[in-house]
Write a structure and sequence with these properties.
single chain; 248 residues; Rossmann fold; seven-stranded mixed beta sheet; 9 helices; 7 strands; 37% helix; Methyltransferase domain-containing protein
Length: 248
Amino acid sequence: MAVASVMRQGINTVLRPLGVQMIRARTTDRAIQAFLPAKQTIAAAKRAGLSVGDYLDQYSAEPQVTAAAVQALLQMSALGNEVDRVCEIGPGSGRYAEKVIEALRPSAYEIYETASDWLPYLRKLPNLVERPADGHTLSATATSSVDLVQAHKLFVYIPFVTTVGYLEEMARVVRPGGIVAFDIVTESCLDEQATKTWVAGNAVIYMVTPRSWTVELLDRRGLDLVGSHFEPLSGGLTELLVFRKRRD
């Protein structure tokens, strides 16, 4: 069986409780992964009497996990009223974007999203700036121009080399004193129970990114780790890392 078929089978095993399945992304670029289809996911949330964000929390992780992650990010970053521009890579359903916008009220919220069927749903977000997404870069965002650049539940799925490229771009676009935040599956997430669960479920969708390597890379790009927060991830954990760019 082809690798792509094995991956789709593993993803759909994880997603089956949501009543949706993975479909092929609308691109031939192998670095841009498949995604939850917007129409089916929105309809499933409506049937459940939940917002899309709450529906995804309840069925793919734990209730209120998105709110808890955003709260942890805000506490660690201590951004206060300093936020003018935010950039998010792969907002998908917008569940993290909604919480961040509610808390920080930025004048511009940039997004890079390759899943075109989610874009009409995302366009309801206030002060949205939709950027052309190539699945690799933040090419439309100026250097040192954003106060917060983030990615949630993205680097846990995409190839390592794609993650590395995005980390370099995040370090480029964030202003001195600004925040870079993202979650990855680190070695700290890999306890025996989680690995057993993922092996039993053939969860080939998850990508592991070394924590110490990541911290060292961003340190060389002028960013200091200010904190971390563990989040549930379908039988395991992912680690949210928050960095601040040095002002010197």
